Amino acid sequence: MHLLAHSAGDKAFVCIQCGSQFSKEEALEAHRQTHTGTDMAVFCLLCGKRFQTQMALQQHMEVHAGVRSYICSECNRTFPSHTALKRHLRSHTGDHPYECEFCGSCFRDESTLKGHKRIHTGEKPYECNGCGKRFSLKHQLETHYRVHTGEKPFECKLCHQRSRDYSAMIKHLRTHNGASPYQCTICLEYCPSLSAMQKHMKGHKPEDIPYDWRIEKTYLYLCYV
């Protein structure tokens, strides 16, 4: 913020909230009134991210400044933001005890962490014996094999078209007037993701849910693998 004043030339008055520059202090004061409403334009000049309050912006700026003021109460490691600290804390809960040394993401088991770390290292140990293409994860190779075999294990419940993999099926479902891949069997509302469907189902009364109900019944596709 301060450096902007040096590069402003005659416009030496700089708004600390948005970086706008003015040649007269009166003009700056008039401009500041635009930041007093509910749609306050508080954003980071370095990365463009917007914030609701000046305090939130100040906390964000610590990330750019390299300040690591968030301390883990379990192991005293420091982090540049509350989000990073919150993500790290999962390594102490027991649910996600395996933490990635590169990005801090946490996983339930060591094998999942090992597969994740290949994103950072670029390692691709799984090779297709048909064309030589390599992959980081085993399931990626298994999906790729279907290119050679022609297998299409995912079937659309709406039109019975089949697809090679899950992502292709999701794209296909959206051709049905934008249908999301999951539909509540009780109220017929669509959901864009499995987690959204799980959250949606919590809104229904337990007595409204059939005794034989399963989350798989909300899928708008069949999977034969």
Automatic annotation (TrEMBL):
Coiled coil: none annotated. Gene3D superfamilies: Classic Zinc Finger. The keyword Cytoplasm does not apply. Keywords: DNA-binding, Metal-binding, Nucleus, Phosphoprotein, Repeat, Transcription, Transcription regulation, Ubl conjugation pathway, Zinc, Zinc-finger. SMART domains: ZnF_C2H2 (SM00355). The keyword Ligase does not apply. One of its GO terms (molecular function) is zinc ion binding. This is C2H2-type domain-containing protein.
